[in-house]
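hiii so um. not sure if this is the right channel but i have a protein structure encoded as tokens and i wanna go backwards to a sequence. like what aa goes where. can anyone help
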């Protein structure tokens, strides 16, 4: 499905309403589906018929260029022919069980050639949160300690063992929280939590604070520090340079595991194979998911042979799960990694990400609603502001922007002023240009309508 030329976005009338078939099915489902679905599904009310390449098609035949990719899950886009062939073939043969399968053996062998040095073991799971929990068990097994530190703005899943290290208000009303977990400030390169001006000052302040926190708040039993090398949920926030390296040095000094949560940043999303590559940091443990299986619900813990042996994690059945690494999941992982390598998607992510940031910055020079554009590879953050107040664009206006984009066939997360753009890694130049054009028209229409020009 080639990108269509951008239709002008102009009047109240042109604002988005889902087509009749989408509306009817969403309405029917809403009688029984539990509340709490992802915001994008709730706000869009799209019922999907299919996806091809970087486009989704709803039941009414309307197509959307996808700047979200299931929040970084659809790394290969939709219905990649080679992926469909490999996964379908495996499904027709065998899909269940923990026995070795040709795809699993091939996947782990290939993976070990692209992981950071020394990280040559993977255990597979089904969801991101499950992998993060397994990584914590591994860190405890290795260090025989039990405390964990995460960062303000961090997100690692919604299960009980990690709720305390979600660095926002998500955990409110879900207490009591597991003891022994702490949060420290994340050195947002663009907005230092300590208000420092220079990036290096910011990194240093955040490291100093962390040192003090460990000294004054913990029981001296630190098993691990868990970090997103770029924070996804917080808005694709890039840390101040030098900080991740400093964190590596500090955790080594303390004998604690450094866990790099690469759920979003892994497998080429940031224009390098891993998010931690940008600072040449080799963590002790990485958690992966999303792009790992090209959309199949599979996640993993990657570590060194030495750390993986730690008991009880390394005991028979100590690190396993019912679905982890089954033949179907393994076929998905094998297919996805082969395609990422064969089609040089890491390079594409870097090149298309650079173009996307460039075009968004050009747009910023014309649109007062864009406060900031940042990005690494195809992990891009755009801060939307109200030019009258200089504050984040208010929710109702963001929602209007989201609908304006949808009306013209562009799927974004612009219902949030910390807009995240993470298209499939297979995105083409034409699609980047088309998407930015539609986004620019949507911004202009909103600004004109609400007197924000
Ligand atoms: C960095 C990070 N870790 C872990 C998770 C949890 O993954 P899941 O939703 O598959 O449990 C997410 C989900 O967005 C994430 O962004």
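sure thing!! here u go:
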């Amino acid at each position: 499905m080639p990108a269509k030329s951008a239709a002008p976005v102009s009047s109240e009338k042109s604002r988005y309403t889902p087509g009749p078939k989408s509306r009817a099915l969403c309405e029917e489902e809403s009688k029984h589906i539990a509340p709490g679905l992802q915001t994008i599904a709730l706000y869009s009310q799209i019922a999907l018929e299919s996806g091809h390449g970087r486009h989704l098609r709803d039941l009414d035949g309307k197509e959307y260029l996808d700047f979200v990719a299931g929040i970084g899950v659809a790394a290969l886009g939709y219905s990649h022919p080679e992926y469909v062939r490999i996964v379908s073939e495996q499904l027709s043969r065998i899909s269940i069980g923990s026995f070795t399968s040709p795809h699993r053996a091939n996947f782990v062998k290939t993976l070990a050639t692209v992981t950071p040095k020394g990280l040559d073991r993977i255990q597979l799971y089904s969801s991101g949160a499950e992998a993060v929990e397994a990584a914590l068990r591994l860190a405890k097994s290795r260090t025989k300690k039990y405390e964990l530190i995460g960062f303000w703005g961090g997100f690692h899943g919604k299960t009980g063992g990690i709720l305390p290290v979600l660095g926002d208000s998500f955990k409110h009303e879900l207490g009591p929280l597991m003891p022994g977990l702490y949060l420290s400030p994340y050195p947002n390169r663009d907005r230092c939590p300590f208000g420092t001006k220079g990036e290096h000052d910011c990194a240093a302040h955040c490291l100093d604070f962390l040192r003090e926190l460990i000294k004054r708040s913990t029981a001296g039993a630190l098993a691990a520090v868990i970090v997103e090398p770029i924070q996804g949920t917080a808005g694709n926030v890039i840390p101040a340079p030098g900080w991740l390296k400093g964190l590596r040095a500090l955790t080594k000094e303390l004998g604690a595991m450094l866990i790099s949560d690469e759920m979003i940043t892994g497998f080429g999303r940031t224009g390098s194979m891993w998010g931690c590559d940008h600072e040449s940091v080799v963590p002790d443990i990485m958690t992966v998911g999303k792009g790992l299986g090209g959309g199949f619900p599979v996640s993993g813990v990657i570590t060194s042979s030495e750390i993986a042996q730690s008991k009880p994690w390394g005991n028979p059945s100590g690190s396993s799960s019912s679905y982890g690494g089954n033949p179907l999941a393994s076929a998905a992982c094998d297919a996805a990694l082969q395609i990422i390598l064969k089609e040089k998607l890491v390079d594409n992510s870097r090149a298309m990400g650079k173009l996307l940031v460039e075009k968004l910055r050009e747009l910023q020079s014309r649109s007062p609603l864009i406060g900031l554009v940042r990005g690494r590879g195809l992990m891009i953050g755009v801060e939307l502001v109200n030019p009258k107040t200089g504050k984040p664009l208010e929710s109702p206006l963001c929602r209007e922007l989201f609908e304006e984009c949808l009306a013209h066939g562009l799927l974004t997360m612009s219902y949030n002023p910390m807009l995240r753009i993470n298209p499939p890694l297979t995105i083409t130049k034409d699609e980047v240009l088309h998407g930015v054009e539609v986004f620019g028209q949507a911004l202009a229409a909103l600004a004109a309508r609400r007197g924000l020009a």
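oh and The longest strand covers residues 379-386.
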